[in-house]
Design a protein that fits this description.
The chain is of the alpha+beta class. It is built from twelve helices and nine strands. Strand 1 and strand 2 form a beta hairpin.
Length: 315
């Protein structure tokens, strides 16, 4: 617990040092075409006045990023989806985003639904949940190893759901919130590629054709909203950021950019590996989500996502 609190504090200090953008609901973004014209005019004027070279426009930088991402994607048979956003530049890039199996990435939407309840006062972070033997499932996580009857705070259950991708914790949250309520949150917030149709490790549901889905764009926009601390409330968004910064799966994005604070979630099933979140790169934070399906190899998928991340950091 001390380690998680330390991570949360460090992340909060980092986040608070960055400009906070207005929530999209309050201030609509300028059309991309208008922004591009304005940028070009301003840069041309500056160059004429100062004799400096004209800087690349958003369109130029997105074209360069697209060239990198597409070349990496075409390097093997894996299907890749990518979302990248630069909140300080009001710029985003999307590659092949469409609904696909979510694996554990769906857990961020469950988390946000619960935090909405905390904000409303119908749930509290310090309330306790009782672990029953019927809650326990396999796969990722540690709670299944606890004795039945153990009482855990809501904060602990949600933290494990994210940091350990704990499947038992996730199913406890689905039971607490209700699958219909989680899907209502997802749709009400505009995540139209996302749906929760089964609990974790429910092979019977998968066999019956029910699975969980999301997209790189839905996840990317979720993380952008969280970066801006416009997801639930600034205080509860900081709690969620703390969970995400404590992610214990550091094999992909963190390994590609060591020493950089990353608040993220990963997901993995047979044939896919995903990573996505907020990369607090000094001076130029960005959001990136990389999803795969039908990968040619797990290691290849991870190395390619890492190369895509480094490309996004440079472009």
């Amino acid at each position: 617990m001390k380690k998680s609190k330390g991570i949360c504090a460090a992340l909060l200090l980092t986040a608070l040092s960055l400009p906070m953008a207005a929530c999209a609901a309050d201030v609509p973004a300028a059309p991309a075409s208008s922004a591009g014209v304005t940028d070009t005019a301003a840069q041309t004027a500056a160059a004429g006045q100062q004799g400096a070279a004209v800087q690349p426009t958003k369109e130029d930088r997105n074209a360069a990023l697209a060239a990198h991402i597409e070349a990496l994607s075409n390097g093997d048979s894996t299907h890749y989806e990518v979302f990248v956003a630069y909140p300080l530049e009001n710029r985003e890039y999307v590659y092949q985003s469409a609904p696909m199996r979510s694996a554990s990435m769906i857990k961020v939407f469950i988390l946000a639904t619960a935090m909405e309840r905390v904000k409303a006062g119908t749930l509290a972070l310090d309330q306790t949940l009782t672990l029953h033997s019927s809650d326990k499932v396999g796969g990722a996580g540690v709670i299944a190893g606890y004795a039945s009857g153990t009482e855990l705070s809501l904060d602990t259950v949600m933290r494990f759901m994210i940091t350990e991708s704990d499947n038992t914790a996730t199913n406890m949250m689905i039971d607490l919130l209700g699958m219909d309520a989680i899907n209502a949150y997802i749709q009400q917030h505009g995540y139209h590629d996302t749906s929760l149709q089964r609990k974790m490790m429910d092979s019977a549901a998968v066999a019956a054709g029910r699975d969980n889905y999301t997209s790189a764009a839905d996840l990317g926009h979720f993380f952008v909203t969280l970066y801006n601390r416009c997801c639930v409330s600034p205080e509860l968004d900081d709690v969620m950021l703390g969970y995400l910064a404590g992610q214990t799966d550091t094999e992909c994005f963190p390994a590609a950019m060591p020493g950089v604070m990353i608040a993220h979630k990963t997901g993995e099933l047979g044939g896919l590996y995903d990573d996505g979140g907020i990369i607090y790169q000094e001076g130029r934070p960005f959001i990136m989500v990389g999803m795969t399906e039908h990968y040619s190899g797990r290691g290849t998928a991870i190395r390619t996502l890492q190369a895509m991340l480094r490309a996004a950091a440079e472009e």
